[in-house]
Amino acid sequence: MPDSPAATVEAPRAVTQHGDNPHHARRWLILVMIGLAQLMVVLDATIVNIALPSAQADLGFSNDARQWVVTAYALAFGSLLLIGGRVGDIFGRKYAFLIGLAGFAVVSAVGGAANSIEMLLVARAAQGVFGALLAPAALSLLTTTFTDPKERGRAFGIFGAIAGGGAAVGLLLGGVLTEYLDWRWCMFVNIVFAVIAFVGSYLLLRHEPVLGDRPKIDIPGTLTSTAGLFAVVYGFANKESHDWSSASVWGFLLAGVVLLAVFVRIQVTSSHPLLPMRVVLDRDRGGAYASVFLLGIGMFAIFLFLTFYLQQNLQFTPIESGVAFMPMVATLMISATTATAVLLPRFGARPLVPTGMVIGAAGLFWLSQITLTSTYSNGVLLPLMVLGIGIGLAMAPAMNVATLGVDPHDAGVASATVNTAQQIGGSIGTALLSTFAAEAATSFLAGKQPTPQLMADAAIHSYTTAFTWAAAIFLVGAVVSGALLRSGAPNMEGAAPAVHM
């Protein structure tokens, strides 16, 4: 319920007149292009996972190198998002978007044609670089294209559904391409997405004029944020193959924390900060960033450990595993679009995001009840659908609020902060939950004679432990978002106005 009558004032139909927004007549076509680009970036985090065994057999690289095919993308993407968002603010979101698309297509072609692991790793890292330019530009373009409150809600619902369900789509697409074509098509398929989005965006978008008061590049902030985020992601990535006591884990994590602390200090004192503190210290936006971060941690348990369960215990093929996630994607899309188009303008984010996280936690707790005798229909399907409802209810409103009310010159970096929160959350979630799962399996087997039955039981125990921890993280997210987000419908008068182009 609203805290005060002021919070219930009905938002205007649009922040500016539609005539001031040259994108208004083409807004839904622009959304299609933005959605294609976002889907490409999100699914690329998982589509390669399915193809890794085939790529390893083809190129002949080691199991240790296999991890870095995934990690190289995450490192570049996660560490460069903030500067990628600022580049869009300075030089124009259209140009940043188009360069990101074109670059992503080129390096995907290089990756698909790779004849060595080194060539593949370079291509994956380059995908992360261009993704870091592309993803913030996509979200900030969405922010400045949709200024009508109701239409903004629908647009962000669709965008939030893509952000939440794109990883599951990647698993399905990766399975189809690997089984019926070749692992290389998990890279080549990006060219199709990128070319369609590039041509459509080039024709539909207009470029912002260069303004005299545009922000400048914050060199010290760029260096400390990039190095700090790199160290954090690298440290958690190393945790998958090293103990917490390893210097390659705690050393990089400590360095990352110190560098990010220095970055914050620089931002407070800089006259042209990379990430203005006004963006993150707003109570609603801060709550939204925290929510997306915690959602990112918990969501990875779903895709990672449930994929293991489906393929190793239920003997699903990669394609069947991808199809198994589609009910979650369907409920997520319905929940996300309903939340932002219908519920958010009326009730605000405060009741929606915590409720979504509680529902997501309930789905994860339900999923943690699977056993060796469970089937997809009686142990997985309904919990997955509940999870979709919860994630959609939380993710889409959080992403909407995270970019609401920012100055147009800050739209790119505000959008980058959303992506950074999700990416860093995912990296942390993968490491933490993998650790909890491995420790649970080791503890389960301690002092017992290994048998096939016992090993299978230990695997199930590791999955359910990960789901339980992920549920607990969602509950923490419910408390944090409930404490930070303001009550009442959002004041759309503070939304970023349409940019004159």
Q: How do the strands and helices of this protein lay out in sequence?
A:
Elements: H1 27-43, H2 47-59, H3 63-91, H4 93-112, H5 117-145, H6 149-180, H7 185-204, H8 219-238, H9 247-269, H10 277-281, H11 283-313, H12 318-324, H13 326-347, H14 349-367, H15 376-402, H16 411-445, H17 452-484
Helix pairs in contact: 1-5, 1-6, 1-7, 2-3, 2-6, 3-4, 3-5, 3-8, 3-16, 4-5, 4-7, 5-16, 6-12, 6-13, 6-15, 8-9, 8-16, 11-15, 11-16, 11-17, 13-14, 13-15, 14-15, 14-17, 16-17
Low-confidence stretches: 1-17, 493-501
CATH superfamily of the largest domain: MFS general substrate transporter like domains
Helix content: over 70%
Question: What CATH architecture of the largest domain do you see?
Answer: Up-down Bundle
Give the helix tally: 17
What is the chains' assembly state?
A: single chain
Question: What's the number of structural domains?
Answer: 2
Structural class: mainly alpha
The CATH class of the largest domain: Mainly Alpha
CATH topology grouping of the largest domain: Growth Hormone, Chain: A
* C-alpha termini separation: 39 Å
Number of strands: 0
Largest sheet: none
Mean pLDDT reading = 83
Strand content: under 5%
Shape field: globular
* SSE arrangement, N to C: HHHHHHHHHHHHHHHHH
Radius of gyration: 22 Å
Describe the structure.
With 501 residues, the protein is mainly α. The protein folds into 2 domains: 14-207 and 274-494, Growth Hormone, Chain: A, CATH 1.20.1250; 218-273. 76% of the residues lie in helices and 0% in strands. The protein contains 17 helices and no strands. Helix 3 packs antiparallel against helix 4 (93-112), helix 5 crosses helix 16 (411-445) and helix 6 (149-180) packs antiparallel against helix 13. The longest helix has 35 residues, at 411-445. The two termini are 39 Å apart. Residues 1-17 and 493-501 have low confidence and may be disordered.
